[in-house]
């Protein structure tokens, strides 16, 4: 027989082997339940941490991808702008050449008219 002291009333009492085994089982079951609960909480916390880490990793990868796409978009816009500027410059140069040729032809025409008028006046003066 075992003598046990009650933790609440501090009274000693005796119990047989079966009662002792029952009390020991209750204590072990309580401790087991507590350890199990603690381990389950730790496992749940580990799971939450893993999920948060995975989410952060995915968010980082998505942000990198978005930055890469934004830079590519900016590069393509810059190319488009450069092509537009080059096109406008080519048009301006072509117009400038055509205008220069037009002005030269207009000057030649005006000179030819003056020469004809002068020749006509000279022919009238000679007659």
Protein described:
- By secondary structure, the protein is mainly alpha-helical.
- It has one domain (2-126).
- Helices cover 87% and strands 6% of the residues.
- It contains one helix and two strands.
- The protein has one helix at 17-126, and strands at residues 2-5, 12-15.
- It has a two-stranded antiparallel sheet.
- It is rod-shaped, with a radius of gyration of 52 Å.
- The N and C termini lie far apart (166 Å).
List the helices and strands and how they pair.
Layout: E1 2-5, E2 12-15, H1 17-126
Antiparallel strand pairs: 1-2
Task: Summarize the structure in short.
The chain is mainly α and 127 residues long.
Write down the secondary-structure element order.
EEH
Low-confidence runs of at least 5 consecutive residues? none
Give a count of the beta strands, DSSP E runs of length 2 or more. 2
Largest sheet: 2 strands, antiparallel
Number of domains: 1
Distance between the termini: 166 Å
Structural class: mainly alpha
């Amino acid at each position: 027989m075992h003598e046990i002291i009650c933790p609440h009333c501090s009274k000693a009492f005796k119990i047989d082997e079966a009662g002792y085994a029952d009390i020991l089982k209750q204590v072990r079951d309580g401790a087991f339940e507590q350890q199990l609960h603690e381990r389950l909480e730790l496992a749940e916390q580990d799971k939450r941490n893993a999920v948060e880490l995975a989410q952060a990793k995915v968010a980082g990868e998505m942000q990198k991808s978005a930055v890469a796409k934004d830079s590519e978009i900016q590069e393509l816009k810059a190319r488009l702008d450069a092509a537009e500027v080059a096109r406008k410059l080519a048009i301006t140069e072509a117009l400038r050449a055509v205008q220069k040729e037009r002005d030269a032809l207009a000057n030649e025409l005006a000179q030819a008219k003056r020469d004809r008028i002068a020749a006509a006046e000279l022919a009238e003066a000679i007659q």
